[in-house]
Design brief:
Helices cover about 50% and strands about 10% of the residues. The protein is of the alpha+beta class and about 210 residues long. A hairpin with a 2-residue loop joins strand 1 and strand 2.
Length: about 210
């Protein structure tokens, strides 16, 4: 097997074994694209009745499967992290994955907002303005550790360990943070960090 195949296999193996998105070698996908093109040309010109020809064909088949599974693994981790509001190390994402992350957050935020409006009896379609009912019951005051700011509620938390910068569900960047730092985060992100033991909720004065 070639060096390119070994790099591809090791990248796939790390991604398969570890729960978080793993860093890829610099220029990984560009190199893999060249590698795949070379394999395609070699397969086309090789004599498939020879051992060399059979090896090239098998390498191409394995490489195609590894690339597809690697992409599926990384996509699954990215989608799960965005749905859970979990932090993703930006340095571990490719440029294409960063663009996908932004689009995922936009879609999730739009879906969440639309669902919220539907549950409140409002039309979620942005082009239609639903009329307010004649007597609107005031919303109850949020818990003292939650601050309402526009579409997203913020929760005040204290970090128990360092954390790199994260992108909130409100599309804003938060952090990086050190242990004992106190910050206001979107409730979805804050709750996820609290569940993981990375932060604790802080009670604030009303």
């Amino acid at each position: 097997m070639t060096d390119e195949y070994r790099i591809l296999y090791e990248s796939w193996r790390r991604e398969k074994q570890r729960p978080d998105i793993q860093p890829l070698p610099e220029g990984f996908y560009a190199a893999i694209t060249v590698y795949a093109t070379q394999l395609k040309e070699q397969t086309r010109s090789a004599d498939k009745s020879t051992i060399k020809g059979k090896l090239v064909e098998k390498e191409r088949d394995y490489a195609d499967k590894l690339v597809a599974d690697l992409n599926k693994l990384r996509l699954g981790k990215l989608v799960s992290a965005e749905l859970d509001g979990a932090p993703v190390e930006p340095l571990n994402l490719t440029a294409e994955e960063k663009r996908l992350q932004v689009e995922l957050r936009r879609l999730i935020a739009a879906h969440t907002q639309g669902l919220k409006q539907s549950l409140q009896g409002r039309d979620p379609r942005p082009e239609v303005q639903a009329a307010a009912p004649p007597d609107v019951t005031p919303r109850p005051a949020p818990p003292i550790h939650v601050v309402e700011t526009g579409e997203h509620a913020l929760k005040v938390v204290r970090f128990t360990q360092p954390l790199p910068a994260i992108m909130g569900v409100d599309m804003k960047t938060y952090g990086p943070f050190k242990a004992e730092d106190v910050a206001s985060l979107p409730t979805q992100n804050a709750d996820n960090l609290i569940r993981k033991g990375i932060a604790k909720v802080v009670e604030t004065e009303p």
